[in-house]
Design a protein that fits this description.
Blueprint lengths: L9 E6 L3 H9 L10 E5 L9 H6 L5 E4 L10 E4 L5 E4 L5 E4 L11 H12 L3 E5 L8 H9 L3 E5 L8 H9 L4 E3 L1 H15 L1
Parallel strand pairs: 1-2, 1-7, 2-4, 3-4, 7-8, 8-9
Antiparallel strand pairs: 5-6
Helix pairs in contact: 1-6, 3-4, 4-5
Length: 195
Amino acid sequence: MFPPRKPLRLIVIGASAGGLQVLLRLLSPLPASFRLPLAVVLHLPDDRNSRLAELFQARLALQVREAEDKDAILPGTLYFAPPGYHLLVEDDFTLSLSRDEPVQFSRPSIDVLFESAADALGEQVCGVLLTGANHDGASGLHALAQNGAVTVVQSPQSAEVPTMPEAALKRFHPDFVLDVPGIHLLLTELERDHG
């Protein structure tokens, strides 16, 4: 499907308004044998504890956890950014957390996750931008593209809130523009090809 490239090591995903249901539809069918790790930013209010990891662990075959500072990135594991913290990928294939200022009015910010993954892993990343009501993620996905990563945008017509995908598409042409079943199929193919 792709020209020869370094094996993928990580999938990074960003979503905002409408993202909870889309993420469940996208990720719940993944089998326990899926080995690529995933790091996810879903915009949530940062004034309360998140139960995302608990909710998704009940519905996914993968291991699911809320990311902690200095977590090693493990195969077959889904990491959620905790409320109120930016989530970053480091050069040593660990995760870090930051309380830096919000980006695009968001903390965690999709741009921060995507840009750090672009810097740390370059073409060994797949970035996926889903439904959302602001422009967070557009510049980060573009940074991933500029570093050779695989870039995926949810088709605006399939997004509950198309603002976020449209912002990315106005900025550059990603590798793929797909609905949720198409993105799921792509992730399974990428895992088979590169996992």
